[in-house]
Write a structure and sequence with these properties.
- This protein has 189 residues and is mainly alpha-helical.
- It folds into 2 domains: 114 residues, Rna Polymerase Sigma Factor, Chain: A, CATH 1.10.1740.10; 51 residues, Arc Repressor Mutant, subunit A (Orthogonal Bundle), CATH 1.10.10.
- It is 76% helix and 0% strand.
- Helix 1 crosses helix 6, helix 2 runs antiparallel to helix 3 and helix 6 packs across helix 9.
């Protein structure tokens, strides 16, 4: 899953760069990748589906004109676009172009987003990749025993019985494997 999130982020970054050069196909790609999240932000602020749709249209029209302002070194594409959508929706509230049912302007400021920040997702993906790399460096007995114990939730006794080895041997395999994992992970820091 981390790989697909990383791939999606890279595709979006690439599309934003192409969009800045006037690539119309890139706008479609950005729209498909972000429309649901950005619509949700607009709808949360405006409280009206039609208003949110109008605000979202403004977002993509303005994005087409201002895509060259996006700086990938300062923000992830989705963070920048989310801020852009929030600002468009708040602008609609301020100008009074919104029908009844919208939220008060003060309620629009804290738009919650449960999605981890891009840098946190990248750190998690790197850690996950490192752990999987280190697990692959173990010998097969240790690797399989650790995976069964920690990923499947089996007890050492269950694993020992399943593999037909004494419990003490199983505990030794796992303890040595965990020490090798620790050493590998610390070497990668």
């Amino acid at each position: 899953m981390a790989d697909s999130a990383t791939d999606a982020r890279e595709r979006l970054k690439s599309a934003m760069a192409r969009l800045a050069t006037g690539d119309k196909a890139a706008l479609e790609q950005v729209y498909e990748a972000t429309r649901l999240k950005l619509f949700g932000i607009c709808y949360r602020i405006l409280g009206d589906r039609k208003e949110a749709e109008d605000a979202l249209q403004d977002v993509y029209l303005n994005l087409w004109q201002r895509a060259d302002r996006y700086d990938p070194d300062r923000a992830s594409p989705i963070s920048w676009l989310a801020t852009f959508a929030r600002n468009r929706a708040v602008d609609r509230l301020r100008t009074g172009k919104v029908r009844a049912g919208s939220v008060d302007i003060d309620e629009a400021a804290p738009v919650p987003d449960a999605t981890p920040l891009a840098d946190a997702q990248m750190i998690d993906a790197e850690r996950s990749a490192r752990i999987h790399h280190c697990i692959e460096t173990l010998d097969a007995k240790q690797r399989d025993s650790i995976r069964t114990a920690f990923f499947e939730g089996r007890t050492y006794a269950e694993i020992a019985a399943k593999t037909d080895v004494p419990l003490g041997t199983m505990k030794s395999w796992i303890r040595r494997g965990l020490q090798k994992l620790k050493d590998c992970l610390e070497a990668g820091e």
